[in-house]
Amino acid sequence: MIVRTLCVAALAATGLTGTVTTAAATVTATAAEPPRWGFAVVRGSAVVETLHQAGSWPQGLKVEATQGEPGQVFVRFPQIGMAAGGVAHVTAISSSADWCQVEGWWQSGADEIVAVRCHRYGVGPIASRFSVTFGSSEQYLPARQAFGYVHWDGSAVATGFNSSGPAAVNTVVPLTAPGTWRVTLPGLGSAGQAGNIQVTAVEPTVPAHCKLGGWSATTAAQSIVVRCYDAVGTSLNTGWSLTYHRERAITWTPSGYRFAYTFDNAPATQGPYVPTPYPVNYNSQSGGLQLNNFGVARKQVMFGEVNGYADNVQVTAFGYGPEFCNLYYPWETYSTYVSIRYVSCYNGTVPVDHPAMITYIAR
Q1: Among positive and negative, which fits the CA dihedral 153, 245, 311, 302?
Q2: E strands, 2-110, where?
Q3: In Å, how far from its chain's centre is CA 350?
Q4: Which bin fits 22, alpha (ψ -120 to 50), beta or left (φ > 0)?
Q5: Is the C-alpha dihedral spanning 284, 286, 291, 292 positive or negative?
Q6: Is the backbone peptide bond immediately before 346 cis, with ω within 30 degrees of 0?
Q7: What percentage of the chain has pLDDT greater than the value 90?
Q8: Phi and psi at residue 52, in whole multiples of 5°?
Q9: Dist. CA 28–CA 271, nearest whole Å
């Protein structure tokens, strides 16, 4: 039975370490354009799954995908093309030590193309199933809710948004350790950890995966560390996308959409358990949530009453080492809940219990 009471307790914020080596890069946004967003699940043969796609395009249009080089897929989101801006995220769906990265995104006619490439640790490019999102929002929100994103292109902030208002400026500062950055989202602060964070490598030339490397919050701002690694787990200076969302979905969506998120911050716990503190969990339908271990490195996540017929899941690892996480199986929806089976994490090819953030969205 899904736990319906979310525990409230204190959790010490993870320390943020390192020394600033360059001035912060900044970006601002205006509230002129309507939000554009979409998500899809694509099998390795570039087949887009009908029941796992939705977006802000006109009804009747569908996401398409085309194979490129080994492990590479071009995902076409219809009628939401942008000359610049937005962020993309991707999560591998595989029973092996696979991860996926975004190689880039661009406008093609009226559409938006997101290039994805997947890899298997120790093997190379692989035709993996994956879950992908693209979104751009310029909708300001009341203080209880928060939404902010940053695309770091490897040397500067390429684009970003902060829902607290046009005066808020997101910043990124590279730290002395290679492949490590501190991101500050002013105006989106909270009294302790609250909300959900997703991080994805954006790298067109070499294998790369990124994770959430540290997180603390004050009422003034969210302070987040991003860490990135290459194919063998060595720290890597690369590009990445980061999205922070609190009481909002991973992409901007109409009010009829459902969403939920959680932070598996005690992965060795057998369960059932609910992560603490309370604000790292949220369910837009006031349903419960429950996490259970199924062997080493397999965590089942259950969200109550939030299931839908077109949905998406994203997962991001949390910690200091080169571990990465994916989805062992596709998630399953039932009449009263959604079951994510399973969030799996790896150090190389070795399954490990590792903290991870999970977010779900459904129509």
Answers
A1: positive
A2: 25-27, 36-43, 47-48, 54-55, 64-67, 72-77, 87-93, 98-108
A3: 23
A4: beta
A5: negative
A6: no
A7: 85
A8: -130, 40
A9: 42
**What is the value of pTM for the model shown?**
0.91
pLDDT band, very low/low/confident/very high, at 32 (cuts 50, 70, 90): low
Q: Tell me the helices (H) and strands (E) count for the chain, helix number first.
A: 0, 29
Q: For residue 61, which amino acid is it? A: L
The pair of structure tokens assigned to 138 is: 């310029």
One-letter amino acid identity for 189?
Answer: G
3-state DSSP helix/strand/coil % of the chain, to nearest 5: 0, 50, 50
The percent of residues in the chain predicted with pLDDT above 70, rounded, is: 91
Q: Which residue has the higher pLDDT, 91 or 29?
A: 91
Check whether the bond before 272 is cis (ω within 30° of 0): yes
E-strand stretches of 63-165: 64-67, 72-77, 87-93, 98-108, 111-120, 124-125, 129-136, 146-152, 157-162
pLDDT at 12: 30
Identify the residue with better confidence: 270 or 183.
183
Residue 7 Cα distances to 28, 256, 288, 290, 336, angstroms:
37, 27, 11, 11, 21
As a whole number of angstroms, the distance between CA 110 and CA 128 comes to: 28
Q: CA-CA distance, 222 to 286, in Å (whole number)?
A: 25
Joined together, the tokens standing for residue 298 give 């397999």
As to burial, measured by CB atoms within 10 angstroms (0-12 exposed, 13-18 middle, 19+ buried), residue 242 is buried
The tokens for 216 are 């603390």
Give the range among 16-25, 75-84, 171-180, 220-229 with minimum mean pLDDT: 16-25
State yes or no: pLDDT of 357 exceeds 90.
yes
HSE of 323, CA atoms in CB hemisphere, 13 A: 23
Task: Provide the CB-side half-sphere exposure for 92 (13 A, CA).
Answer: 29
Q: How far apart are CA 321 and CA 6, in angstroms?
A: 29
Q: What is the CA radius of gyration of the chain?
A: 18
Query: The tokens of 319 are what?
Result: 């910690």
Q: Is the pLDDT of residue 10 over 70?
A: no
